[in-house]
Structure formats: C-alpha cells, structure tokens
Design brief:
The chain is built from 16 helices and 2 strands. By secondary structure, the chain is an all-alpha fold.
C-alpha cells in the first residue's frame, strides 16, 4: 500500500466507500461486497495506514507501564544487601521471599494473557499496574521476610501481567512496518526502568532508607495506573471481534484521523483467515507447536540469566567485598547496557531479520560472562562493572527482541496468550534464579555466578536456533 490520506486544514475526511459497498483504503482498488453496509478491514487499516499521534501516544502509555514494571520489579534487588545487614539474615534466608515474587510473576504472566484475550488488553494493563503499585507500597511496612515474600508475590502478579498485556497493546496500535521496532522499544523499557530504579535507589537508600524506597516506588505506579485509566483505550483489533463495541471502535478510529460512517461494518480478514480458536491449545496449531516449545525454552533460559542479575548482582558484588553503592552500580550498568542492546538489536532485526542477531547476541553474552571470570573484583572493579554493562547489552537485547518474535508468530486471537505463556515459562527460569543465584554465590562466588550466566546464554542460543518462524529480513 503506497497511498496516503488527504490532509485537510482541520480534520481528516471520511473514508469513502467503494462502489460495491466496501470502504476504500489508501492505495486499494476495491473491496468486498459481502455486506449491504460499507465495511472496513481494520487489520489493513492499521497495518498499512499512517502512524498517527493517537497511536504513538498509546505506545508511549504502554512503554510507561513497562518502565514502571521494571522500576518496581527491581527495587528489591537494591534493597536486599541493606536488609541482609539490617535484619541479620543470610542470602539463603532471602531466597524464598524473592522466589515468591517470581512465582507471582509467572502466575500473573499466564493469566494476564488469557484475561487480555478474553476481556480486553486495556483492563489487563491497568489492573496489573495498580496491583504491583499497591503491593510495592505496602512492602515499606514489612517487618519480616514472610511479609516481604507475601507482598512480593502480590506485586509479582501485577508485574508479570503488565508486560505481555502492554506489549500486545503496542503491537496492535502499530503499523506492520513499524511493529518490530515499536514492540522492542517498549520492551527496552524494562532495563530502562531498572536503570532508573538504580539511580533512584542511589539517592533514596542512603538518605531516606529502604522503606521510603518502596513507599515512593509504589506511589508512582499507582499514580500511573490512574493516568492509564483515563487515557488508555482498548485496542482496535480486540474491539473488532466484539460487534457490541463497534461504536467504541468507530469513535477510536475517528480519533486516529480516520472518520468512518456510522453504519460501518468492521472486519479483520487477515486474522479471520488464520483461525478463531482461543486458548493454549491454539498455540500448537497451524504449525506453531515447534515455535511455541522453542520460545518457551528460550524465555526460560533468558530470564534465568536476566533475573540472576536483577535479583543477585548487587548482593554478589558485596559478597566480593565491594561497597553497597558500588555494587548497586553494577546492576545499573547492566540495565544501562540493556537499553542500548535492545534498541540496537531492534533496528538490526528490522533490516536483517531476527534469527542471526539473536543467536549472535546469545553467544556473545556467554563469551562476556566467561571473560569476566578472569577479572579481579577489587583490582579491576571498573572493568568488572563495565563488563556487566556489556553482559546486560547482549542479554537484554535478546529478551526485548523475543517479544517481537512472539508478536510475529502468533495471530491476534492468541497473541496475548502466546506472549504471556512464553513469559510464564520465563518466570519459571526467574524463580530458579532466586535459589540458584544464592547457591552458586555461596559455593562458587563470582566465578560460579558468571559460569551459570554463560551456560544459560549458550542454552538460549540453542533454543532460538530451533525457532522455525523468525522475523524475516527486509527485502531490498
């Protein structure tokens, strides 16, 4: 499609109907005549039309929810070294509390996708943000590890639900030509949120203490939840499947500078051709079984590596004799590298496809971890911190881009479920990291921790090689 909508001085014109009753899209020569009323293929309109201000605002709102997800999700990693010292507990004592949060994330990831596909993406995002915001705020009142564990479990339900729901919102408001970049740009907000959490913790912890860290972090998320409640719309591709909400869809399309007649009939022909079955079984139909299994394994291993950093990296560095502030900078550097890794990988796969960039990043991430085993923590602290930035670059580049692969593999009817199920398996890897991280740090110190990261990244490369339907390279 190469046409464009004519631009008037104040508003866009109503999309005209073709002679056979179908709405004519830009550059389209005709339409289907199966209805007496004019019809509009919402999939064609979104995939091939311009990217309007309203659509960009929605993607921004989705990105903000993911920033807050990464921010609140990683606050605990900065607080753990302080709490271990203040409460006189060990790393092993803390592992169940950390695992509880990750279990909550896994459950939230699985059920949020099913709820988003059945009841709507908008509600799933808003409820998720509110839940993790309120629970994070309440952690500030905790008096023991059991209370932290219970509240982290509740927060995890929201944190796990926000990510797949928000990425689905971004995918379904973005033209096909920009979708990979838009999805990855939203996922990059996880390490961006973690980086902001590190800077935030560096100011709040020494001045106000760990309780203020959670009070302020939770309050910010709740505030964002109220903003989303008033601003975030439901996605067109969800609304088109519910005729009772077509008037809402008609108003939304009008806000996107595409006014349509009141008697319009909406369709999404591309998705109808793929199939209507919803639920987990649909992930294994139409040749998707291999991709589903491979993506589940890839998410498991990637989040094992990533959450080993999110949860234990500052603690590992303090166990090696570094100051708490310097140890925290290791996780900040990891997230900082992750922001650039995700953005660069997103631009790369837009041109070259996803297979080789993801395999290369996985293997280079493993190589970086192995290299850092030879770095002296106290004599070469700067090199070690920078090395974790490089490790974060590769690990988060893969994590961010895998969501774009999910959006490519799965159709609208199961897109949120497919992404959420993959992320749920990823959360299992994250849960394992809560116990594995504590164990390898206690037994093997820095080198044992880095070896675990390297093995996870090698397994990740093997899983990604097994994916059959990667995003294709752009044709010259």
């Amino acid at each position: 499609m190469t046409g464009s909508y004519p631009k008037g001085p104040t508003s866009a014109p109503t999309i005209p109907a073709t002679g056979n009753g179908a709405v004519r899209l830009p550059g389209e020569v005709g339409g289907s005549g199966g209805s007496a009323n004019p019809s509009l293929d919402i999939g064609q309109l979104l995939d091939n039309g311009p990217w309007t201000v309203v659509q960009k605002l929605v993607v921004l709102m989705a990105a903000m929810s993911i920033i807050m997800d990464g921010f609140d999700g990683q606050l605990i990693g900065f607080a753990v070294p302080v709490l271990i010292k203040e409460w006189g507990v060990t790393r092993g004592d803390f592992a169940p509390a950390l695992a509880a949060g990750l279990v909550g994330m896994g459950i939230g990831s699985a059920f949020a996708g099913l709820l988003a596909d059945r009841f709507g993406r908008r509600g799933a995002v808003i409820v998720s943000v509110m839940v993790f915001g309120l629970a994070t705020f309440c952690i500030g009142f905790a008096e023991n590890l059991w209370q932290i564990g219970a509240l982290r479990f509740i927060a995890g339900l929201g944190i796990g639900g926000a990510l797949p729901s928000a990425t689905t919102v971004a995918a379904e408001f973005t033209p096909a030509r920009r979708r990979t970049l838009a999805i990855t740009a939203t996922i990059v907000c996880v390490p961006l949120g973690g980086m902001l959490a590190g800077l935030f913790a560096g100011v709040v912890l020494p001045n106000l203490g760990w309780r203020a860290l959670f009070f302020l972090g939770g309050a910010l998320a709740v505030l964002l939840g109220f903003i989303l409640l008033f601003i975030l719309p439901e996605t067109p591709r969800f609304l088109v499947r519910r005729p009772a909400r077509w008037e809402e869809l008609r108003r939304l399309v009008g806000r996107m500078s595409r006014p349509v007649p009141a008697d319009i009939v909406f369709t999404d022909l591309g998705e109808q051709q793929i199939g209507k079955r919803e639920g987990l079984l649909a992930l294994f139909e139409n040749g998707r079984a291999r991709d589903t299994i491979a993506l589940w394994c890839a998410f498991f291993l990637n989040l094992l590596a990533v959450y080993s950093a999110f949860t234990w990296l500052p603690t590992m560095l303090t166990s090696e004799g570094l100051d708490v502030a310097i140890a925290g900078s290791g996780l900040t550097a990891y997230n900082f590298g992750g922001v650039f890794g995700a953005l660069i990988c997103a631009m790369t796969i837009t041109r070259y496809g996803s297979r080789w960039p993801l395999l290369l990043c996985s293997l280079l991430g493993a190589a970086t971890a192995l290299y850092l085993t030879g770095v002296n923590t106290k004599l070469e602290t700067g090199i070690l911190i920078a090395g974790f930035g490089v490790q974060g670059f590769f690990a988060n580049a893969v994590q961010s881009t895998m969501y774009a692969v999910c959006a490519y593999v799965y159709p609208t009817t199961v897109r949120a479920t497919g992404t959420a199920s993959a992320l749920a398996f990823g959360r299992l890897g994250a849960i394992l990291s809560a116990f594995a991280g504590a164990t390898v740090i206690t037994i093997g110190g820095k080198d044992g921790y880095l070896l675990m990261l390297a093995l996870a990244m090698i397994g990740l490369a093997l899983s990604l090689a097994f994916v059959g339907h990667h995003i294709p390279a752009r044709k010259p």
